[in-house]
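Human: I would love a firmer grasp of how sequence relates to backbone shape in proteins. Take your time, and here it is.
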Amino acid sequence: MKLQKTVKRLQKLHPKEIDLSLDRIKKLCKRLGNPQDKIKAISIVGTNGKYSTIQAMFAILKEANIKCNIYTSPHIKNINERFIFNNHELDSDELESLFEEIENANNNEPITFFEILTAAYFLKASQYPDNINLIETGLFHRFDATNILKTNLANIVTSIGLDHLDWLPENERTVEKIIYEKTSTLLNSNIIVAKQDSKEITECIKKTISNNNSNKSFHNEDYSFAMKENDFFYYKDQLGGMKLPIPNVRGQYQLENISTAIATLRALKDLSIKTEHIQEGITKINSIARLQEIKSGKLKELVKNHQLFVDGSHNPLGAKVLNEYLESLNCNKHIILGMMANKDHNEYMSYFKDISSLTTIDIPNQPNSIKGKELKDKLNHSKNINYKKSIEEAIRSVPVKKDDIILITGSLYLAGEVLNAN
């Protein structure tokens, strides 16, 4: 309860949720002794796949007995998820104390909540100078609070697509502008570029980072993977090839994220990552709300013997890769959908080609979400579309038959509500 009160107080220090500038975070971190200069970091930028790539690296690094700190955003179930130190999530008492220290240093000056969180992460991370820091960049990168590092070990560029367009000027809402924002200020170290949705996007990334002197590695040029029969896939890069087991996460896109994680860790030769670390690690990935099957709990009881999945995808690129997985399944698929108001709802749903039913819902506790009834009206061209007020009502209403699956998707915030309700 004390932590929640502190969070609410810190959220009032700035009138805007996001205010793209680096001045406030630099000023605060200077007061804290510039803790960001004392850590070893891998920076992860992109539109989709950042969290999954981080979790794959984390699993491999743990197998190699290398301790990690992790900073991700947003959280799914509780704010503690954003703060991993020495391989463990920070408990509420420790996080409360950390926030109080940052609050005192800030001295009530205007600053966004995300900047407070980032300064808190840097300060705590500096207490573990030998750990590897896996740092996810928020919204964009150029003016993101995490972009005050002077050096890092590597930059990962995950798949880039259209998202958060409402934060760009109307005449600049293009993928080229997003690529510029995310990649033009990457540090000189190593740059590993994941598989992109098109050759044009890859070429645009290459052009944007052409003056960056980093060692560069591109999917399908410097590293690649291929699915093989008999339950394994084959990874290959300039250091050689590896036969790897199928990981414990679902979807072809997860193999892409895992391959990018492997390419990054193998590029950092001082880490001495061995094949067995990778083989073991990728079967122990903890991925919350990314094609996560709910196997027990209150919501699972409502579907009985049917499979229930939750996925936090919320933009067209996420919908595309999610549908690719659904199309690989030989069964009827039922979608329960809740989304934030600023998303392209019709574009998102246009990627789902073979859906037996669609049910829109309200996202609880999210004033910036679109109401389920309004979402249904926007998608009224879709067949078999219904509206239900709650997650539970929606699940009960789905006309499932034998072997059907139910997927709840459209927002990470909805995914969090689903997991908490379960």
In short: Residues 252-267 form the longest helix (16 residues). The mean pLDDT is 94.
